[in-house]
Design brief:
alpha+beta; Arc Repressor Mutant, subunit A; 4-stranded mixed β-sheet; 4-stranded antiparallel β-sheet; 7 helices; 50% helix
Length: 217
Amino acid sequence: MIREGLSKAALYPDGLDIHSSKGSLGLFLSNKNGKAACIQSLNEGWIQNLDDGSKAKITDEGWSRLRKDPRLDLVISDWLRLLDTWKDQERAILQRVRENITRLDHLSEALNRLLSSEDSQIDLPIEMHMKHLSENGMDVPLPQLWESIRIQYPRLTLGEFHDSLRRLRTENRIHLHAWTGPLQEIPCPDVALMAGHDIAYYASLPGLGFVLQEQLP
């Protein structure tokens, strides 16, 4: 019990509850043997009380006692198993974060579609400009599409332009394609927009899809 208590204390340098309770990790069990191990560890100076005495942390003497334990191999084995457990927990947390990000993206698109009109005044013109710019079915860089549509709508804001692209994408009237090069090399980065987990930089009409090689200076 002393070895296990010091092993736990070593992993929590800021202190841990002295005794375990339901739903709470502690250095020692709350039974008779656990209390005896706690008292001996305190008397030997292997652990040090903190605050109101309900928590304790390992001391230099405790580290020395742990290193000299005849079953140090058990301590190392326990730590390695704990490391695997923490890694699994981190993977599960990251997976939930990814799922929540996807849900938020879907919610944002649903809200935009719900709160917007059936067809913004620039949705159809954007499609018309894409048909004009998409020579031989090539994808159109968003900066090129943005400059083209602004000639017809000089008061159009970049936010309205992006909202229109998202609506058209949700309705499957256009496809958005990601920038695949280094981010520091993306031309006119302010015109790009987030589409799911990708940074969209090109647009194409359904059924067409060749990446335009020419890039804006």
